[in-house]
Amino acid sequence: MTEIEKTLEAHQVRPTAMRILIYKYMAEKEVAVALTDIESAFSKSDRSTLYRTLKTFEENGIAHQIDDGTGISKYALCESGCNCELDQDLHLHFHCSNCDETVCLTAHKIPHINLPYGYLAENANLVVKGICEKCSSE
After folding, report:
1. Total of domains in the chain
2. 78 is in an annotated binding site
3. CA distance 61 to 7
4. Where does Zn(2+) bind (predicted)?
């Protein structure tokens, strides 16, 4: 059994061939990917299968969705031990306005925010926009 298969099974996700391929594709990327990126990489696959795989990954804590303000949802694999809890695992995202890539900055955690009485947080997303390291050195 491969590491990918073990990871999927540890999250109660059956390791089908397509799920393994998509996980491997996402793991090889250093940036968050959009559904259209995955569609381009797996052009012979059905769009709904690809979308369902991303949603399955998201629902089972394998990947998280990023709203980087571009209007296109991006997805990135969660780091080991992440359970995407609001108070523990939220991290900073960076969107480069030059190359249009979005990256997770997992070492930079979003601190817990105390909301006023009666407010209940369901999600938080912090995206910093600017020029990434790769583009600024060119």
Report:
1. 1
2. no
3. 11
4. 96, 99, 132, 135
